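Case study 2.
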Amino acid sequence: QGIANTAVGAHSLQDNDTGSFNTSFGWKAMQENIGGKENTAVGAGVLLNNASGDFNTALGSQALYKNIIGYDNTAIGHGSLFDNLTGYENTSIGSQAMSGNVNGHSNSSVGFESLYSNTQGNGNVAIGDSSLHNNTASFNTAIGVKSLLRNVSGSLNTAIGVSALRYNINGNFNTANGAEALNNNLSGMDNTAVGYNSARNNASGNFNTAIGSRSLNSNVNGNSNVAIGYQSLKQNTASLNVGIGANTLRDNTTGYANSAIGNDALRFNTTGYENAAWGVEALLNNNTGYRNMAIG
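Prediction:
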């Protein structure tokens, strides 16, 4: 027989048989527990279906409601970790945070509906309202309201800032630091964006680096670009360009394989390609010219 249990509330710990050292407060809290031990449940219907899960802490109505054998979980908030059955070592704080988790483990979520749809993803960190809301994948980190909101199967992404990587669905290995950085990325991978609106409209472009507010802002599917500086390569949609300095290659659209180093270098270039401009305002007014070199 179970020992050292505390139960307060109608049907609380009603079916307990060999479970011990449990604390249960609330209507139907831990009602179906049989052998689970050292659990703490506070709230109506909390850990209601727990049968043999151990070392769980649930606070808030229907938190860890469906848990059966999951262990070492912490759920705080209404419906937090509601669907969890076998998942373990999860921490969930916020109303309906990680509500859909079934067997995912080692996840941490803080905020309303953060990691809401995660069913089997592991090792995710979501901090902020609706961060990683649609996620089912593993090893993502999202810090900020609606960061990685739409992510479904993308893995090993890091998003820090409001709406960073918001629309990512299956892109992998992306890093976005700044409000709306890589906001519209869908499937692009191995991108790095640092700064407000950096690489905001990238959808499927890969291997891009954007550092600076609005850098690579309009890039959709261009690959292997480097933009460092305010509005560097802002209008770019092409590939293989390098812009280092404020407004470098700012107006470039389809020009490719250009290199601009120095503030305003190749600023007004649009379709010119294979140009090299090193120095402040070098080749400033070049628009469609190609294979030019300017130093100084």
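The chain has no helices and 18 strands.
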